[in-house]
Write a structure and sequence with these properties.
Helix content is about 20%, strand content about 35%. It has helices spanning about 50-70, 90-100, 105-110, and strands at about 5-20, 20-35, 80-85, 120-125, 130-135, 150-155, 160-170. Strands 1, 2, 3, 4, 5, 6 and 7 form a seven-stranded mixed β-sheet that branches. α1 packs across α2 and α1 packs parallel to α3. The longest helix has 22 residues, at about 50-70. The mean pLDDT is about 95.
């Protein structure tokens, strides 16, 4: 089953100044969000494998779109995250089926790596909901400068029988990070943690 996509929205956020200080180079993050039909809206279905396949399909599509929006090579992406919101006729397990079993592999392929778990969030909500996409360094979860999030919203999604699915990527960590911890220069990228 392929996703029936109603719309795709791409958002780019660039921070050039924080607390009166210049951020140079600016920190940039992008999210690609698909609004899809929920094939299981309004009914309990034991086998969610069609949604798992949709997650794999959307992992590639959305990560390519988000990376292209930043205008960089996928290997230069530093952080990533994913999120989904199901409309009121869906269940959280529908979002989990899309986000977890198979979405990660195509995202990592687009980025040429990704040793760390991809942070994720899911919820049930209606049109205009805010989707908070958690972000973390793609190769080392302990890099505190990259603990972040990106907030996105589509005014008419998700409708009752839809799912809103997002992948976000960054070219850097937070602007002006200074809470210590493992630095990007210290990453080994072997265990997904350090």
């Amino acid at each position: 089953m392929s996703a029936i996509i109603r719309k795709i929205v791409t958002v780019v956020e660039e921070t050039q100044m924080e607390m009166g200080r210049s951020v140079s180079p600016p920190t940039r993050r992008a999210a690609a969000i698909a609004v899809i039909e929920n094939p299981f809206a309004g009914k309990y279905v034991e086998d969610l494998s069609p949604l798992i396949a949709i997650g794999e399909e959307l992992g590639e599509l959305l990560s390519k779109r988000a990376v292209a929006a930043l205008g960089i090579d996928g290997a230069k992406v530093q952080s990533y995250g994913k999120a989904a919101a199901v409309g009121e006729n869906g269940e959280l397990e529908h979002a989990a089926a899309i986000l977890h079993p198979k979405m990660g592999a195509p995202v990592r392929k687009v980025l040429s790596k990704g040793a760390a778990l991809i942070p994720s969030s899911k919820k049930r909500s209606g049109p205009g909901t805010t989707l908070d996409i958690p972000l973390g360094h793609k190769d080392a979860a302990f890099v505190r400068s990259h603990f972040d999030g990106m907030e996105v919203q589509i005014n008419d999604a998700p409708r009752a029988n839809e799912i809103m699915v997002a992948v976000a990527v960054t070219d850097s960590g937070r602007p002006l990070p200074r809470v210590g911890g493992l630095t990007v220069a210290e990453i080994k990228g072997e265990d997904g943690l350090r």
